[in-house]
Structures are given as C-alpha cells and as structure tokens.
Amino acid sequence: MPHLTKRRWLTVNSVLLLALTVTLLSAAAIGVESVSLAHAWASPSPENPDFLILFRIRLPRVLLAAVVGGALGIAGAALQALLHNPLACPHILGVSGGASLCGIVALVFTSALTASLPGFLRISLVSLAAFAGAVSTTLLIYRTALVRGRLQPYALLLTGVVFNAFCGAMIMLVNSLVDFYQSHGVLFWLMGSLAAQDYATVGIVSLYVVIGSAWLFSQSRYLNLLSLGEESALQLGVNVELLRRGIFLASSFLVGAIVAVSGMIGFVGLIVPHLLRLLIGADHRLLLSASWLGGAIFLVWADTLARTVVSPTELPVGVVTAMCGGPFFLYLLRKEGRKVLAA
Amino acid sequence: MNPDPITPLSCDGVSFAYGATEVLTSVSFSVTKGEIFGLLGPNGSGKSTLVRLMSGVLVPRTGRVMFAGRELRNYRREELARRIAVVPQETRIELPFSVLEVVLMGRAPYLGRFGFERAHDLAIARRAMEQTGVNALATREIHELSGGERQRVILAKALAQEPQVLLLDEPTAFLDIKHQMEVYDLIGHLSRQHGLTVITIQHDLNLAALYCDRLALLKAGRVFCLGTPEQTLTYTNVKAVYETEVYIGLNDITGKVHILPLDAENRRRLEREKESRR
User: Fold this and answer.
1) Which of A232, A240, A341 to mutate to probe the B interface, most B CBs <10 Å?
2) Total of domains in chain A
C-alpha cells in the first residue's frame, strides 16, 4: 500500500460517504410494504401511510443502523490497534456482553423509577449502566490477559469468549427471574435489534457516538505509533498511558451507548476494519473514518436483510452479522492465528 | 544534524530500581559527539535499563540524565524524539503496515496532530531507507520481512527521526554475521560523516572491539570499567565481569583485540596452569 496522502484520504472518505448516502436512501426504500417516495412527499402527514412508513418507521431505523454500525466499526479498529490484535472487536472481547448485562440489570431495577422519565433520560440511564459494564469488562479482560507486562493474545480471546457466554447466561437468568414487560425482549439483548426507535432516541445515541468517535479519530495518528509497541510509541512522543486509558474509555462509551438501544450486535467491528485494511491499508488516520463509514454501510444492509428476508417475520440483526462474522472469524483465525497467537 | 559541540548525552550518578530491586547504582559517564559508545556486560547487568533511562522512557530514581546540558525530564517528549532515537532488540508489528509507512512513523515528532507527511518528510524517509538498504522493500508488508530486513527498517525509522543520538539495544542480536557487519558499517559511516552519536548495547565482544570507540563494562548495575576497547577488554576485566575464561588475542588485519570463547575442558586446563604457577 502506498503511504497515505491527503488526496487519498479525501478520495476514500468521499467514496464511502457517497456509498453510505446511497445505502441509506435505498435501504429506506426497500421493505415489506412497497412505498413511494413521491407519494410520501405529496402529502407529508401521519394519515398518509407511505409517509408514515418511510419517515416514521424506516428512516429512523435505517439511521440508527448507520450510527450503531459506525460506532462498532470504529471501536473495533481502535481496539485492534490498542491490543495489537487484529482479531479483537467489542463483541469477541466480551465488552458488548458486559455492557448488555449491566444494561438489562439497570433496566429491570429502575423500570419502576424510570417509567415516569422522558425517553432520552431513560436511554441515557441504561447507556450509563451499559457503559459501566463495558468499562469493567474491558479492564477485567485486559488484566486477565496481561502476563508479565505482555498481553497474551490467546488469553485475551479466550477470556472474551468465556465472559460473553457468562453474560449471555446471566441475561437469560435476569430475564427468567423478572416479569419482563419491557419493550425489549431477551432476544433484543442477546442478538440485537434496531426496530422500533424514534427520532429522539436516534438523536441522543448519535450525539454520544459522535463524541466517542471524534475523540478516537483525533488520536488516529498516535494509534499508528502504538503498533510499534508501547515503548517505541512512548519514545516517539506519545503519552501511551493516557492514550490507552482514553481508547478504553472511548470504545466502552461507544459500546455502552449503542448497546442500550440495539443490544448485542456482533462481528461488525471485526469484519469491517479487516476488509478495509486489505483495500486501503493499515494507516489509522484513514482506517478509523473508513471503518465508521464502512460499519454504517454494512449494518444498514444487514438490517435491511434481517427485516425483509423472512418476511413477514423479522430476524434479529445479530443473526445476520453473526452469519457473516462467524465463518469470517474462523477464516481469520486460520490465516492470522499462526502469526498473532504464536506470540 | 546539529553541529552542537556540547556533550550530547551524559549520566550523572544515575540509580534506578524496579520496585525494591536496584538495577543500576550511581552510574556516571558521558559520551562525546560523533563517537560510538558500547555498553557491555552479562545478562541482567542493567544495560537495557540504562538505555531506557537515556531514551527518557524511564526516569532515574536518583541522579540525572542530561542531553546537551539539560535534564531529559525537562524536555517535551516530542522534542526528545527529534534528538534521540531508539532501535530496540526486536520490534513486533501485528498490523499490516508497509515498510514505507513504518519508516514514515519516524517523522511523527515533526508532524501536527492530523498532519500528513509532506514531500520533505518523504524525502527524509527515502534517504533513510536508502542508507539502510531497504528502499527496494518500500511497498512490502512489514510482517513479510525476515528479522534482518525488519531490523534495518526499524533502523531507517530511527534515522528518519533525524536524531543527534542513536540508542541501540543489541541491534544485531537476530542478524547473521553479514547483516551484523552491514548495520555496524552503516552506523560507523553515520557517526564519521554526520557526527551522529551512537550508544549501543552489544553482546558480541568482537563486534564491540571492532566498531566502538569506547566501551563501558557493566557488572551488577555498576560501571566496572570504561575506556577504549584495548583498555577495557583485558583478560582480567572480561574474567571479572563475565566470570569466565576467554582467549584474548590481537586481530592481525584490524589491529583490534579479539576474544574467543573456550570450551569447559580448556577453561579447566587454564585454571590448573594458573594454580600451579601460583
């Protein structure tokens, strides 16, 4: 890959932005009911079913898919750089699992309290709990995998997978113990869903995602240096300790924010940065923004498939991403495993 | 490179400990501009820690490490990275960066937060790659390379920092003899032609004798002796520091001392002969 120039940065990001726009428009047009944009525009009122479907049901969902996908994509790329492990992503590391578990617990224990709260506060409360869950999971797996000052790749992946299984079981437990009348069923937390969200929710999640992503993006040059190793990065002028904590917090913040509205959606953060590295190279100044846009495109299409492929029922979107991601992970493990895990 | 005649790097009564274990005890020495200074000593004698202190990655518990008369800790990290570069023993890069991308990382201390490398930075990276002979590998992925090639890429990255001092932590540990000599020939050239000051850890006493202007032998965290290879690599010093018998002779071609290991049988014979002479 030739080195990154401003020109290539602009070209790649423009192409991806254009692709995302096309994706958003076409995904909004695709669905079980066929609707006409012209008809929807002709009388923009809630009585017009075309308007209702397009602008009240599909568009918020498609936008949410983009924001969630973007957050997962950039968080995956950042975690891979931080952990020196191309097999890392929030889902595989168990961060999403920890976030989901704390999210569901918060939802159950505060449901009486929050019933009277406005929607965005309720989302923020669950997000906060999910964020706490994500941070503690990240710390836990990091501590477990750190042996004599070195991250052990095997331990890292194994801890993540086991912790994810544990969280899945706990979520089932919580779900069985409480009378679960919330709008989110257990499938929402385990396999993810982007259905039934209003613009206010999309707005508040977008705000959190923009903050977290912007911070990660501002660090992209230092992420490159981090791949030389902590000490070399330090010698090149990077405040490694601060950067490491910042990436932990920012990616946990992103995962916390999106888990509260979309549950556990796996593998986006693994697949997207990986494919993009093959296409545009490893430089994080481009990879982070491209992973955001690429993650958004990928999840919008995955969700479109999830809501149309077995209509009139819907698949959880996590089923679709796992069907792409599972085999991809195995392929990577065979291809990269020898290189990465031999450490 | 800066034609500053001041002592580039010096240690003044430096001590350091990891937790309760003291690794270095009142180490003092200074290097002069343009010299190749070798750090020798057995495993665990504190060489690597000393290099980390001199690169500013660690801060001494007591004493001072100075660059151009100013303590390292009074420099901003990026200022230091423009003056001192480090080549570690081994660098593992798991993400698929290209060789040119890795070398350009050496320009980081000169760029702004979102900075892209300018033509000037690219020219410097290209020249560094030319010097270390990795220009032909520019577009290859870093993990496709052999250990020797990778080490020369990391050396090019260090040179792209345009440092006044180069710190090498056993740079040739994983290289074969040809590549070992290539790296040291290059370092020698840079110190003579460009006044680059080089401090290098070396386990190979012969390479140290051949290429270094001065050597410091470390034992248990202290400087045991310091001077030219002829002054320091004597039978008594080597025996005291490494606690083993070696053969020390003079190389006819280079005129430098050379050191050969002896097998157990010959070491015992030597011991016996000395006993009987006493």
Assistant:
1) A232
2) 1
